[in-house]
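Hi X.,

You mentioned you wanted examples for the new student's onboarding notes, showing what a folding record looks like when two proteins sit in one file. Here is a clean example. The first protein comes first, with its sequence line followed by its structure tokens.
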Amino acid sequence: MLKVFKPNLYSKSEFYKYMGIFFGEKEYKKELPYLINTKDTTWFVHLKKDKVLGFSSYDITNRGIELGETYTIDNSFELWESLASASLNDALELNPKFVYLAVTHKKECSWYLSRDFELAKTTTNYYFLERRQLDE
């Protein structure tokens, strides 16, 4: 089941009931060092019997929309793709001029490249991607 948490429209206690472990537990903090929740974050959380199997998010920022971490507990690419699609499609419905993100795996980078993103920069650990909407 996919549960969506939209900014200002959800109970923080319900959200952290599911997601608190990822913000607080040492093993996840090490694996997800840039995981944050802001007042402008939309979350997509995949649950099975109230257990989180994966999540994705995006933030509305001054630059545009930043797609956040897409994470799955069991490294399932099928679930990763489903969550990444949910975030991307929802974000694109806002008609942003600019969408950007960073990913760590080549397979994830390739997935975004196949969806009209361009590779802006690479570092040792990250692929930085962006997508600009053309003015009509």
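Then the second protein repeats the pattern, sequence line and then tokens:
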Amino acid sequence: MKDFKEFVDSIVSKWRNEKPSIIDQLGLAIPANRIMGDWAEKEVVKNIKEIKPEYEVYLSKGSQSPADVYAICKRQKFYHIMLIQVKSSIVIEDVIELNDVDLKLYYQLGKMVKEEFKKKFPTLKEKPLLISMGYIAVFNEVKKEKVTPMIFRSHIYKNYVSNFGNIDVLKAKELVRKTQFSIYK
């Protein structure tokens, strides 16, 4: 989709400008394990790019928003924006889930994406749109100084829908759920 990368960059910038004190207070401005996290995110992006129909996928610059991965696809009857928070560790038991504060921020981002999408793409504002807010856990297995990212858990926290009219929302959510789980190979 033309201009989706610029859209993602603008969302991340807007988020950072509006929420810096919250992010800094939570210690999210400089994530620990940056390199391992980057490898995990790149593994998720690689897997999303293999999905059919094809998604356009971008990483959040420097993980500066609650979503690490942003992807969009024109499905048969609706547009799907996939937001994904990636968590990883070299110890499988240490891969964390999002807590209540993280989820609150994530949901705020989802609402912002929904509102800003309509502004950035006015010709699509009346089209059906489903925004999924997902999570992917990655175990960074270290063997002989080589790191292999392995996705081992995935789920969707929330979906935002708009303009679905006659389209079956439950079927759309199920399709999106299956798509999310196809990342988890």
